[in-house]
Amino acid sequence: MIATPTIFVVDDDRSFLAAVSRLLRAGGYAVQTFKSATEFLQSARPESSGCVLLDLHMPGPSGLDLQDALAKTENPLPIIFLTGHGDIPSSVQAMRDGAEDFLTKPVKKEILFAAIERAWARDARERQRRARRRELRARYDALTPREREVRALVISGKLNKQIAADLGTVERTVKAHRAQVMEKMRVTSLAELVRVAGELSGGENALPQGLQE
User: Fold this and answer.
1) Beta-strand (E) ranges in the chain?
2) Which secondary structure element, helix H or strand E, spans residue 89, and what is its range?
3) Distance from C-alpha of 169 to C-alpha of 158, rounded to nearest angstrom
């Protein structure tokens, strides 16, 4: 079960943590605070949803270091940088690496809340996309090695008789494998099979043999 969306505030300034926590909670948000990137990374949040409100310069790993670390996890929460020491190169790098926004202290409540709402909406979209990819990968993993071969050749546009020749079998057998592929992938047409293949191959993770059509 996914937890209530939360704002994870990471900043080494204790007074800022207290102040922003009061502001966010008054706005109706759930908040957790951390004094360093290390403390945040060590916290258990495998199913957390929401976003990270992140300082740029902190003792130990920086905000950019934490952004890089989060990008490599299975649950890369959106990041809003909120810093009192911003600079153009850092803001450019943060945005290029996928930050939702880069704000400077002090920030108006309306601007901060708007950035948070965008980040939460993005988190919901990306969480849905990852769930869809996991579902499609499970369908693909249910295929036998021969069914994966047939699938790849079908997607490439080959006819059943051409696939049979390529695989050294008969057309009747290819038809049977093709029917199994359609059933296991839960599609009803070639166009849908191709579209699902595009969803699978469009992700960031390494793909198993047969998905690189």
Assistant:
1) 6-10, 30-34, 50-54, 79-83, 101-104
2) helix 88-96
3) 15
**Which letter does DSSP use for residue 2 in this model?**
P
Q: Is residue 138 pLDDT above 70, yes or no?
A: yes
DSSP 33: E
pLDDT at 149 over 90: yes
Residue 10: what are its φ and ψ, rounded to 5°?
-120, 110
CA distances from 97 to 38, 54, 113, 115 (A): 20, 14, 22, 17
Distance CA(25)–CA(139), nearest Å, equals 42
| One-letter identity of residue 210 | G
The helix-helix angle for 190-201 and 171-185 (nearest 10°) equals 60
Rounded to the nearest integer, the mean pLDDT of the chain is 89
CA angle 147, 152, 158 (to 5 degrees): 110
Classify residue 41 as exposed, middle or buried by CB count within 10 Å of its CB (0-12, 13-18, 19+).
middle
- DSSP, collapsed to helix, strand or coil, labels residue 52 as strand
Q: Which of 119, 48, 25 is nearest to 79 (CA)?
A: 119
Which helix or strand (DSSP H or E) is residue 18 part of?
helix 14-26
Q: What is the pTM of this model?
A: 0.74
Q: pLDDT over 90 for what percent of the chain?
A: 72
pLDDT (0 to 100) of residue 4: 77
Q: CA angle 75-81-87, nearest 5°?
A: 135
How far, in whole angstroms, is CA 33 from its chain's centroid? Answer: 23
Residue with tokens 């579902």: 135
